[in-house]
Here is the input.
Amino acid sequence: MAHYPNNPGFTYALRPFRAEVDLQDLELEGEVPGDLDGTFHRVMPDPQFSPMFEDDQFFNGDGMVSLFRFKDGKVDFKQRYARTDKWELENEAGKALFGAYRNPLTDDPSVKGKVRGTANTNVIVHAGELYALKEDSPCFLMDPLTLESKGYTDFGGKLKSQTFTAHPKIDPVTGNFCGFGYATTGILTTSMSYFEISPTGELIKEIEFENPYYCMMHDFGVTEDYAVFPVVPITSNWDRLEKNMPHFAFDTTMPVYLGVLPRNGESKDIRFFKAPRNCFASHVMNAFNDGTKVHFDIPVAPNNSFPFFPDIHGKPFNKEESLGFLTRWTVDMASNSDEFEKSEQLSQNPDEFPRIDERYATQPYRHGWELVFDVTKPYDGPGGAFMAIPNTLGHTDLATGKEKTWYAGSESAIQECCFVPRSADAPEGDGYVIALVDNHVSNYSDLCIWEAQHIDEGPIGRVKLPFRLRQGLHGNWADASKLPI
Here is the structure.
């Protein structure tokens, strides 16, 4: 009989879902604009079987991919597991075989040396395939429309890295898929690589280099000329794994760096600039360069924002210090100094999970959207809140500094949003924002649609699911022109 842990990572809002679903013509409140023709894919960790350890991480679950197909003012829904090597082996055994999050020392002997990936962090359409991504393992391929699993790829044996980014950037000028790997030669190593994949799916380049120390390199930025890596001390070591402690922990005593690598350079060309102080930073809004000056925009918090990764020195989680604000870091590759040239706060609302109009990735931009943690608003959901709740959607106009917000209500939280342009040639920021809004009391999820620059007026449409999806991590829109025929 299945038994899931009775802790915040597996109960209430994070209770496992585990259902593969097909639904046509979802119920609608309001309208779905007729010009929306494409797919919104998102993914959530959703364990097929109860974990081997009661205190396992929420995001050690198997990747469950959701597909919302928009066409002619209607939305269909499909959901399937990413049938990774891990999923297949455990499905055959009828139980969990892989142990704690990123700790192969805890695995059942029968799966020693097998790929532990879950494909549960991000999904994006590229070169006619759906890339299902988890940064500790190779790229997993699925069909974008049927969600059939196709297996791992190393791009014809050309990609050396054993790991593959969960936060790629698509260069809007070249169409190249820009990604990276960390711990590329094995767990806990400082080896990294930057790579680009053509619009047709061929590996173009791979540049190998070393990080100053092992850390969770979760996201990065790409400019026209550079790849940019935030080095933040969410770190680990073999002692932690041997004691079956949480893989990652945050170290407030270590330096923070920004690594900058010329996209057409070599490993020797990377430079690491030291930040003014220790801080926490995870998800990137955007990056761009003006000649040798590199601008990198990311929410920055004075302390750890992830309570599931404890303080390495045993200090309690500080909810107030966990709140980050969009910040621009500027460094100059022509400078003789290895210090930041500037660090400037860009927003007044505490935020995370930032998104842009992806047509302006790598370029100067004006509009950004993010999840806001409005701690002045109440939360009346079950189980309380062990961390700040993403209860508000935000829009930041970087040209005027004006910020707009929409509050989801005391019973709800918002999952990561995504911008959809009104048309291929629409001005920057002209389009829609879509995001799941989860009601933790009624246990329903709505995929909401906003006019992108008027989010404060509320959703123009709610695509209503007859259940509540588990908290997901990331997702992306694909225009119908990017989908297989």
